[in-house]
Structures are given as structure tokens and as C-alpha cells.
Amino acid sequence: MEFLLYNLLHPTLLSLVLAVIQLVAIYFVFRAIRTARTPQGAVGWVVFLIATPHFAVPAFLFFGHARYPGYIRMRRAMSEVIATLRHEGNKHANDPDIPSDSPLASRIYGFERLAGFPSVGGNATRLLIDGAATFEAIFEAIEAAQSYILVQFYTIRDDALGREMAARLKARAQAGVAVHVLYDSIGSSGLSNAFLQDLRDAGVDIRNFHALRQARGRFQVNFRNHRKIVIIDGNTGFLGGHNLGEEYLGHDKQLGAWRDTHLRIDGPAVAQLQLAFAEDWLWSSGDKLTLNWKPAPSGADRRILVMSTGPADRFETGSLYFSNAIGAATDRIWIASPYFVPDGDVLTALKLAALRGLDVRILLPEKRDHWLVWLAGHAYFDEVRRAGVKVLRFAEEEGFLHEKVLLIDNDFAAVGSHNLDNRSCRLNFESSALVFDSDFAAEVEAMLIADMARARPVKTRLDDMGFWLSNAALAARIFAPVL
């Protein structure tokens, strides 16, 4: 790089540029020491910045941020809403069906402390398996909207499914229903201006999550809003693994059939899911929405807590979410995820659970949609398998597995957007619904048993997977903190 600069710049100017880069590198060294999540991460950045500042300074601009600046200050504007959710939740805080000294009660309490408000009863759930069922249910709910519709996807595509959603949203907007849509500019990078303008012309308020802070956050591409949320009138909510694109219906020729899971919720827990959207909307637009914060209880009585996490949280909430669930299990831990690049705490929790004799299973895809993440996952297989964790791969001929589902013992299951990787735990904004109900857990168990019947156990050691794969996996693991 210096040789190239010498040929392009006057020597005096070059010296000045190099001196500035060195000064910036030194400043970033102190930033890394103060903000890195782990001592190993701090050491890595310090060595990188000192040894090769010309490469490390640009890298730090994009990947060196540990928190999403400003978002936590923005949350103060939602304090009244959060107080309302706590007050409403406390009305349902004591459940006579859950003994206070039971493992489930202890687990719930830990999650409630993380989320900042209580779990709530009075909810109905509907497990939605794969894209056809998911979007049929979402479209049906949109048609019934009377007051407002909130839609948020990491990826929105200008394809047949995206245009069908757009047509339905435009129709409801023209009927007088307020429609607010959020998308992530990184996940929706291919979205055309014509698609956006067509929605706006019809009265749909659609915004890029990063838009308002673009001038401040143009280097922060490492932070993504990965949530997939639809809310109707504050009473009905959807969340899970599906984005808005034809591949989620299994129409991608390379990935083939798409195995994914979504969840419909009716009842008080929808307000907690709505809070995640409202905060993101306030961040992206500066506007505080007027919404229904007291949805009526449904006919069912499932206890739910919506766990929304992100890089603006006080704690590493995504990692603690997995660690709390794994650590409190007494019988089994089944996790389905498209990616397996766990952070150190989650990795340790999984191994300890297996060593305690629990039935620990990780269901992953054989197919890959992101090469580097897929490779890095292989570097963890031997380590967890030695502890007794069963690693299963959803067979390639069955399609691509993208669901994000957690099942603990016989009374707790979660569906949402959290992947079992560092990005979901630390860098992305995510939301999952934690359902504390044995009947729902039985539904999830039946679904996962069917998925595992289409999977194969991993039995081959990494060293026996071939020279290129084994070494590429170990190299990819180096990038685990941002995968």
C-alpha cells in the first residue's frame, strides 16, 4: 500500500497521510482497550492496529464498534410505554400453575430480569411451519386490520412475494388503515426506489431502519436489524425466521425447499413485541407512534415473554438469553439454527449441559447460504461432540433449514429470529417469543422430531473431512466475533 501511495502522492503529503493514519491507529488502540467485549478481542485489535495500521484503521471503522450509539438514549422516550408494560405484566405475574420453587419459575425470573418486564398470560399461539402457512396467515391478518399495521423485515425483496405484500398493504392504506414498514438497508440492499416510491404514493410509510442516523452511522454496517415482525392493531403479532422474499417459499433454485418456522400470537404479549417495533421506528424516523398498548387477553392462557435484544442493551442480552435457557435445563436442550458460531459463554453452557447428562441436540443445515459462517461452524463440531452434544445436519436433499427454535425440557420453547451465532447474540437487533407452556412445548417437540427425522448426525472428525475443508473451517473461525 505504501508503494502505491508513493506513486500517487507527493512525498511530503504522503508522510502527512501516514502520520495521520498512525495517530488514528493509536486512538483506536485506546478505543479497543476500553470497548472490546473480551481481553482476547482487545489484544487482537491492538496487535492488528499497531502492526498494520493501513489495513486495521479502515477495518476498525466498520467492525470495531461494540455498541450502537444513541439508541439507548432514544429509549428514554419510550419509558412511559415500558412502565405501562410492566404494570400490565405485573397483573399476571403470579401463575398458580408454576410453583415458585420450580426450575421453570427460576428460568422465567431470569428472562424477565433480562427483558425488563414480566411475562404475561392470556395469550393464544399458532405455530406456522414453512412459508406458505406463514404468509397465508399474515395476509389473512392484514386483510382484517382496522386501525394500523406494523411490518418489519430484515430482507424485503421486489419479487412476486414482495409485490403481493405491497399490494395488500397499499389496499389497506387506501382503506384508511395506518401502515408503517421498516426494512434494513443491508438485508434489503436490492430494493428498488421504484418499489419504495410506489408504496409511499399509496400512503404506506416505509423507512430504512438506518436512515435517520446515516450520516453518523455510515461505517456501522456491522449492526443489522434482523427482526421479522408483523403486528395488526396491537392485538395480533407475528415473528420468526421468515423474511419477505420468494426464497422463503422454496423458490430459490440453489437452496431449494426452505424449512422455516414463524409464530402467531394473540393477546397481551403482542404489546411487548410491538415495543421492539416502536423503538426501532422512533430510532429510524424520530416519530413516536400512537399505538394500542393494552391488547385484550385471548381465550387461551399461554404465558409468553418477548425477548428483544440488540447492541444497545446494557448487557450482552442475546448471549445471556441462550446461556440462561441452557443453564436452567434439567432434561433436554434442542436447538434448531441455520448457523452455529456460538460465543464462548454459550459454547461452555452447551458443553456443561451435555456433561451433566442432558439430551443436547443442535440441528443445522447441510446446505449453505453463507460460506464463511457455514465453514466456521465445522470448527466447533468436534469440541461439542466430545462433551456429548449431538450435532445433526438437515439433509441437503431436503432443502435449507433456516428456523430459529429452542426447546427446553417439557415446558418451555421459543421461536424467533435469534441464530446460534455471535452476530445474533451481540451485533443484531433480534426478537424471539419465549412460551412457557407444556402444550406448546409438545407442539414444538413434534415439529423438531419431524425435522430431525430428515437429518443426519455428524460423526466425522474435522481432520477427516479433507485438507481444504478442515483448514478453511479453522481459518473461518478466526472471524467468529463478527459472524
Strand content: 15-25%
The fold-level CATH name of the largest domain is Endonuclease, Chain A
How many domain regions?
3
Q: Alpha-carbon distance between the termini?
A: 27 Å
Percent of residues in helical segments? 40-55%
Structural class: alpha/beta
- Distinct helical segment count: 18
Largest sheet: 16 strands, mixed
Q: Specify the CATH class of the largest domain.
A: Alpha Beta
The total count of strands amounts to 20
CATH architecture annotation name of the largest domain: 2-Layer Sandwich
Poorly predicted ranges: 214-218
Can you give the mean pLDDT?
A: 85
**For this structure, what is the CATH homologous superfamily of the largest domain?**
Endonuclease Chain A
User: What is the C-alpha radius of gyration, as a whole number of Å?
Assistant: 23 Å
Shape: globular
Textual characterization of the structure:
The protein has 483 residues and is an alpha/beta fold. The chain has three domains: 2-63; 71-304, Endonuclease, Chain A (2-Layer Sandwich), CATH 3.30.870.10; 317-482, Endonuclease, Chain A (2-Layer Sandwich), CATH 3.30.870.10. Helices cover 45% and strands 20% of the residues. The chain contains 18 helices and 20 strands. It has helices at 2-8, 11-35, 39-51, 53-63, 71-74, 79-90, 103-115, 130-143, 160-174, 193-201, 214-217, 270-285, 317-328, 344-355, 371-387, 422-427, 438-452, 467-477, and strands spanning 120-129, 148-153, 178-183, 205-208, 224-225, 229-232, 236-240, 258-259, 261-266, 302-309, 332-336, 340-341, 359-365, 390-394, 400-401, 405-408, 412-416, 420-421, 428-436, 455-457. The strands form three sheets. The chain has a 16-stranded mixed β-sheet that branches. A two-stranded parallel sheet has the order 8-15. It has a two-stranded parallel sheet with strand order 12-18. β6 (229-232) and β7 form a beta hairpin.
